[in-house]
Write a structure and sequence with these properties.
The structure is a homodimer.
Chain A: H1 24-27, H2 34-43, E1 45-46, E2 55-57, E3 65-71, E4 74-79, E5 85-91, E6 96-97, E7 110-113, E8 118-123, H3 124-133, H4 135-161, H5 164-181, E9 188-190, H6 195-202, H7 206-218, E10 222-225, E11 228-231, H8 234-241, H9 246-249
Antiparallel strand pairs in A: 1-8, 2-7, 3-6, 3-8, 4-5, 4-7, 9-11, 10-11
Helix pairs in contact in A: 3-4, 5-8, 6-7
The structure holds a DNA duplex.
DNA sequence: CGTCTTTTTGAGCGTTGTCAAAAGAGGTGG
DNA sequence: CCACCTCTTTTGACAACGCTCAAAAAGACG
C-alpha cells in the first residue's frame, strides 16, 4: 500500500484522450475549442491503474496535481490523532479530487482506491498556467471549487441535522444522482464502499447503517443484495432526504 | 430585514482603501505590487454598514460578488424544507464569504449580520477579469477556495466524529485561533453569536451547549460571563479538540 | 420598570453507540 | 473444487449521550 510514483505514466499514447473520453462532457462542461482541448490534453498524464487499497496520494504529501477519476472509485480520508480514519468523500468517474491541496501545497487528506481505479493526473502548475491562455478554463476551475464548497456544506447539514434514516437515504440518493448524471441507472447500482466506510462517512456506527438498510428493505424503499442496491420507492426516498439540496439538485449547464 | 441594494455604496471616497486597511495582510496575503493593489481597489465597493439581523445576500439570489468582512460578524445559513435554519459558517473580519455562489451563479446560502457589520464588496466578474492581469491574484483565489474546502472538511470531521464536549471545545479554539491571527487575544473574546446559533452550527441542542460551557467553567477550562469567553486552560482545551486540524493549524505564508 | 428573549437548570426519554455473537461473503491453498 | 480462514455484515441486548419538554433565572430593550 505505497503511494505510487507520480511520474509513472501508463501507456500514455494508447489510452484515450480528452476528445475521446466519454467523461469529457462532465469533466469539462465548457465549450473548449479543439485547440484548447489539445493543450489541456498535453498536460494530462494518464497513470497506471491503482489496485484496490492503493493510495493515490497521502495526507501531508506535497501537492502536485489534481486528479480526475476515469474508472473506479476512491475515498479521501483523514487520520485523526486517535489513529482512526475519518472519510471525507467518495469520488466516482468524472469527478475531480485533490483541490484541497492547493492551499498549503500539501494534501490535507489521503486518497485510496476502493477498487481497481484509473485516474487522469493534471499537474496543477501546468493547469494554472493554461488558465492564463484559456479564461473559460479558469472559470471552470472556480466553478468546480465553488461546487465542492456547496457540496461539502450540504454534507455539513447532513451530519449536523439529519437522523440515521435521513443520512442513509441522503447518501443513497446522492449516489443515485451522481450515477444518473454519468448516464448510469439512477435506481440500481453497486456500492463500492463497505458498510463500515459508509458509517464512517455519515457519522454512524456500522451496525446502524446495516439496520437502517435492512429496515428500508422491509419497508419497500430499497432492495439490498450485498453491495447491490436498487431504489424501489424513489419518491419516498426523496422525501426522506428532506432538506433542500440546493447544489446537488440543480443541473449545471 | 431586507437585502440591501448591492449598488448602495457607503461614503466610498472617505473609507479606507486596501493599502490602509489593517486587514490587507490577511485579506491579500500576497505581495501585490502597488499598482496591482490599486487596480483591486478600484473594483472594490465599500458598502454601508449592515445592522444586526440585516441580510447581505439571500439564498437563491443571483451571485454578483464575494465579500470581505471589515468589521463585525456574519453567519451563513440554509433554510431547510422544514423551515428551520442550518448555519453553515461564521465570518469574522478579514474573512471572505460568497465563494459558494460561483458555481450556479446563485448564492446557495443566506448571509446575515450578527451585529453591526461592514464589508467590502468585490464584484466577482471584475475580480475574475483582474486575475488575467495579475496571476498571483488568481493563485490567491484558488488558495482561498482550497482553504475553504479544507476548513469545511474539518467541520465535517467535527460533526461526524466528535462528542458535545469536543465540538464546543473545537468551536471555541477555532475562534481563538482566528482572533489570534487577526492580532486579538487568543484567550479572551466576545461571542457575537447566541448559544442557539452555536448549537445550530455544531449540531447540538442549545441546552447542551449551555451545559457543556457551564461544566467547562466548573472544571477550570474556561471562564464564561455571558458572551465573554476566557480560555483558562489552553493546553487542556487543545487536548479536547483532539483530531488533527490540518488546515486550521498551519500558519499560511 | 415591564416585557420579551436568551440562557440556564432539571427530569425523563429516545436514538444511536457499544459489546457480543452468529451468519455470510470472499479469498487462499491443498 | 472444496475446506478453511478471515473479514464483513447482520442481529440482538443494553447502556449512554444528547434531545425534548418545562420552568426558572438572567439579560436586553423600549
Amino acid at each position: 500500500m505505497s503511494v505510487i510514483n507520480a511520474n509513472t505514466r501508463f501507456n500514455s499514447k494508447l489510452t484515450s484522450q480528452c476528445q475521446n473520453c466519454s467523461l469529457s462532457a462532465l469533466c469539462l462542461p465548457i465549450a473548449l475549442a479543439d485547440e484548447d482541448v489539445n493543450r489541456l490534453d498535453q498536460i494530462i498524464e494518464r497513470k497506471r491503474p491503482l489496485k484496490k487499497g492503493e493510495l493515490l496520494f497521502r495526507q501531508g504529501q506535497e501537492f502536485d496535481s489534481v486528479f480526475a477519476v476515469r474508472t473506479g472509485t476512491l475515498k479521501t480520508f483523514n487520520i485523526t490523532n486517535t489513529g482512526e480514519e475519518q472519510i471525507t468523500g467518495f469520488y466516482c468517474p468524472s469527478e475531480l479530487l485533490g483541490l484541497s491541496g492547493i492551499d498549503n501545497n500539501t494534501y490535507p487528506v489521503s486518497a485510496k482506491a476502493l477498487e481497481t481505479t484509473t485516474v487522469c493526473e493534471i499537474p496543477f502548475a501546468h493547469l494554472e498556467q493554461l488558465t492564463a491562455q484559456i479564461p473559460s478554463l479558469k472559470h471552470q476551475i472556480f466553478r468546480l471549487m465553488s461546487r465542492k464548497i456547496c457540496d461539502d456544506q450540504q454534507m455539513m447539514v447532513l451530519l449536523g441535522k439529519k437522523n440515521a434514516d435521513e443520512k442513509v437515504a441522503s447518501f443513497l440518493m446522492n449516489l443515485s444522482h451522481r450515477f444518473k448524471k454519468r448516464g448510469y441507472s439512477a435506481t440500481s447500482f453497486r456500492l463500492s464502499m463497505s458498510r463500515s466506510e459508509i458509517g464512517n462517512y455519515l457519522g454512524l456506527a456500522v451496525e446502524t447503517v446495516s439496520r437502517v438498510m435492512t429496515r428500508f428493505q422491509k419497508n419497500g424503499l430499497i432492495d439490498v443484495d450485498g453491495k447491490e442496491i436498487t431504489i424501489v420507492d424513489l419518491p419516498e426516498m426523496e422525501k426522506l432526504v428532506g432538506v433542500v439540496e440546493e447544489c446537488g439538485k440543480i443541473e449545471h449547464a
